[in-house]
Amino acid sequence: MLVVMQATASPADVQRVCDAISEMGYQPLPMPGAQLTTVGLIGNDRRVDGSHIEALPGVAEIIYVSSPYKQVSREWRPANTLVTIAPGVTFGGSDVPVIAGPCSVESEQQIIEAAHTVRAAGAVALRGGAFKPRSSPYSFQGMGKEGLELLRRAKAETGLAIVTEAMDDEGAQLVAEYADCIQIGARNMQNYSLLKTVGKLRTPVMLKRGMAATVQELLLSAEYILAEGNDQVILCERGVRTWDPSSRNMFDLNAIPAVKKASHLPMIADPSHGTGVRDRVGPMARAAVAAGADGLLIEVHPDPNRALSDGAQSLFPQQFTELMGELVPIAAAIGRRITTPGAR
Amino acid sequence: MLVVMQATASPADVQRVCDAISEMGYQPLPMPGAQLTTVGLIGNDRRVDGSHIEALPGVAEIIYVSSPYKQVSREWRPANTLVTIAPGVTFGGSDVPVIAGPCSVESEQQIIEAAHTVRAAGAVALRGGAFKPRSSPYSFQGMGKEGLELLRRAKAETGLAIVTEAMDDEGAQLVAEYADCIQIGARNMQNYSLLKTVGKLRTPVMLKRGMAATVQELLLSAEYILAEGNDQVILCERGVRTWDPSSRNMFDLNAIPAVKKASHLPMIADPSHGTGVRDRVGPMARAAVAAGADGLLIEVHPDPNRALSDGAQSLFPQQFTELMGELVPIAAAIGRRITTPGAR
Amino acid sequence: MLVVMQATASPADVQRVCDAISEMGYQPLPMPGAQLTTVGLIGNDRRVDGSHIEALPGVAEIIYVSSPYKQVSREWRPANTLVTIAPGVTFGGSDVPVIAGPCSVESEQQIIEAAHTVRAAGAVALRGGAFKPRSSPYSFQGMGKEGLELLRRAKAETGLAIVTEAMDDEGAQLVAEYADCIQIGARNMQNYSLLKTVGKLRTPVMLKRGMAATVQELLLSAEYILAEGNDQVILCERGVRTWDPSSRNMFDLNAIPAVKKASHLPMIADPSHGTGVRDRVGPMARAAVAAGADGLLIEVHPDPNRALSDGAQSLFPQQFTELMGELVPIAAAIGRRITTPGAR
Amino acid sequence: MLVVMQATASPADVQRVCDAISEMGYQPLPMPGAQLTTVGLIGNDRRVDGSHIEALPGVAEIIYVSSPYKQVSREWRPANTLVTIAPGVTFGGSDVPVIAGPCSVESEQQIIEAAHTVRAAGAVALRGGAFKPRSSPYSFQGMGKEGLELLRRAKAETGLAIVTEAMDDEGAQLVAEYADCIQIGARNMQNYSLLKTVGKLRTPVMLKRGMAATVQELLLSAEYILAEGNDQVILCERGVRTWDPSSRNMFDLNAIPAVKKASHLPMIADPSHGTGVRDRVGPMARAAVAAGADGLLIEVHPDPNRALSDGAQSLFPQQFTELMGELVPIAAAIGRRITTPGAR
Fold first, then answer.
1. At A114, is the secondary structure helix, strand, or coil?
2. Whole-prediction pTM
3. Chain B residues close to A68, C-beta within 8 Å
4. Was domain A2-63 assigned CATH 3.20.20.70?
């Protein structure tokens, strides 16, 4: 932590800051400059909250020079963390697994058909919501436990790994029984109770970036999970709030290299929510792989025109198949490989 | 719902949209125009999800002409809802109650001293977090149940109503036992499990706007609470995400008249989080009252320089006293009255 | 300027940064810390561009500890600058002048009627665009020089000072002949050629904040004008880009105390553009005065339903009169006074 | 244009809207619905400003169903516009030209060296600013006309096409004499005087998206240029304002497919400004090509550590060479080709 003093700060102001730092149990280091003085804090253990110092007379600003997170940091663990959610489905290495499927589980026929479709096109994991966070209480809220049962059947039929969302503590326990990876949705990225709960489980977690979360906030939320003992965390860019009505969200691919530099955790991308429009899912899926994403999460529906939710951004099966074909040479161009399903 | 067709849409495209609407159980109404055709949907019950229609050939866009919320709407209930959290502390009428106190409950001495201080200056309710949602798992997380006990003592000593945050289902039950109003924080505005839980309780709820929530999303989250049977909901503007590093948040006072036009629920303002800087709390508290806020939530600490959290935005007791004096004539200028504490 | 080194930086990395600073003609000051080293630069004259240092091995970030502006800074000139655009119409002191009138000059009758109306209600200056920046080339672009002639007539009839926009160099020269204050619109806030041109004139300038400009960028744009010799600059908050479709713009009143702390220049507010909706202009005008704005800019039209532009946000004459009545006690509550028109 | 009435609107309210539309010279078409009535306007010529109707009693909102732009629209001209700035350098077809070079022209040696370097790596056009828009008046403002002379020499030596920025009318005339393509920077995207000036020239224009411009605003600004007779316009995504301090800008690749669907104009991408950090330029350049960008604009400096501006985001020559190698297979994966320099 560095305390930058105002140009007009008096020696007494500087002393007061030094005293405040001492009182907090750290050693102050005043550094007089040509125009102004800064005061460093020695022994920063990443837990210092200096906000009260910010308000002392003569203080211009506080600068935190250490990152506030720790276990998710690449300084802490230089090598990539590999997260394996099922045999052959590993995120964070040179392979790029694709998770695909409908927004919601709607019926046995729909989810089984979706599973066969996406597997045939090359996906290695199936997505599909049983618990759906919807802005309106009057929208379809998902099939609940029955949906989880249907996902289990889809897995038995196709061998696909299952990724599905949990919205609360009870749901997380349940999802952990049925799924290979628990998704924490954007709206719950800072639901710290839920993060602690999944941190105590031993199931891999896919944590989606919040609607207006900074990269640092995303990493801090992941830190909550690691701090409880679960380091099997996959991060996911899914688009953030935008003032441009031409898109549902702004798909922030800059976050991919930013996260991968700062952290050892894998980061995947969800171009379906990232764009909100079927026509743009393909271009943005390709862009995400080219940018270095460690995986993709794509909405595909056997019959998007009859989907109960997110129909407009779900790919038709044929579109998904074509897209998978385009992704292979793009991954190859940067020395990676789209994961292929194992034999059955 | 209105389906706007592209200028180049064929009659067959229009027919396909009409069929899709019929299949959904509604009656389609095609309206040919000079440049393009629109198709209306008759019988919209606010639950229609038309996203799959958006993807049909020839469709330009879907326009939802009814608001997606219902019970929170002023069309539904024209008169202001009055929310009384304690005798003499009513939000939504002509009175403007001020809730004040520290960010967190830190000790018995601190919270009792804070309570006396803010009551003496004219506050009628005490804020103070026992459960604290913090971006970092390593930051102070609040005193928990012990903090609630201390708030109860502060109430016994001063008669102030108690407003404090709950972060999960279990916490909500506990807070409901101790407090007069349960705060749902910005990070949990779309934690629908928590919203349903507090909707089933009979304690008033103060729902803070999320970091990047639209006014409509805020109202939809309130709808979750009303839909469970609890209409004692106070909304709160607390600043939203900004790209301008000169402020911690952007304090969106436009939301006050916007919400009050759309909804019958009271809307208060939190200038402490809305600015993040002590010097701006006074100007923005005055601005909020002038804009028509139904109450204020202000951080005041007996000794901000030693606060465990949010020190930089907490007012000194003397500053708070001066501010309360400024607010009285501003409220009077628009025919309102800062609520005064009852006799003890 | 402070160069923060990565925790893993080697002594050679630190030396390389020191050398780079020396090469730039400044003196480096390495400051080893517990976790990492920072290197200060002595003699910063506010013109240093350290971006190439940011890219050296081992550098974590560059922190600019001096503000990049100079003449607009309150450190540079502690007392408020008073900007007098006409006798009795001064911004920056305890008086709060109100500028009002239609979005565009549309006809002689319209502007003369508007001028009489706003003067009767208490405005001391008339706004009205002769040159209109419109998003679409097919929208009404203003009456040009003829509009300026009509504004001159309105001034002759009512004594109101004239504030009107210039969009290019030629227009600025022309506006300077006719008006008492040249407005630079939001879209041109970073049109540096235009800023330099008005900096060379001796007419007061009202500089509106850009759609997504930070407070610092606004001050830097003002610095362009002062750097050319014209210190008669009034800043104006007019709302910024928002992702919330419930408002045309987000009206950032935090910027008022932020600018007034950082700079000696007066800052006014435009609640008409700041809200985009007539119903919210009153509440936000009151809020702006309560927040400490040094003046207001309000759209009023004799017949808003027939306005050629911005009809939905223009007040009816009667609404403006009522608003002026509400503003008086609010200004008084903070020791200020709404400027009253002189005798004629 | 569609006028959506409130659910509570009376027949008189609807009639008033119809009358207002008639008065504007159009034919109103009332369309009663189950919950509410809408009124259409027949004969919309894209120039209607309905804002005064929005304010009539009983009106809920106005919906513009035709796009406000015209000549830039793909409805207007279905086939891609090809913009050829020099022989063999065409944007909008299947080829993808790369423009590269330093942020600013700094000296003869620097720009000639840069030109040779980027040509050797495969660029077909040279960028380099002679007129630099800088936030601070005290930053390096470019070499002006001398810089243009140096660019001409670089072209003579290497055969590269020249792309450079103009900031005002006079500069635009000058740039048109020296360069193959006039760049309009983000800060001037809505400088309508400048847009009209370059619209009257016959030199191709590259128009960069403003810091917070919507896709529609970008297209409307292009419309200003086409409306004056110049249809040789290349659009450019260069990142937009973000609240996330982890990036200088948010690079909005969604805009590429969005613009290409709405308009026939070519759209390129600038990953250097889009990221602001050298390490991310490569990943985002690859992503832009994968997303369908019609070209790239990349900052490369012979010696970034000594650059006078934007050093931190400029690639080293070797990095640029490697990147060009990665782009070839990515373009091929979607059936395109990175343009190669002609023989000399």
1. helix
2. 0.88
3. 135-136, 138
4. no
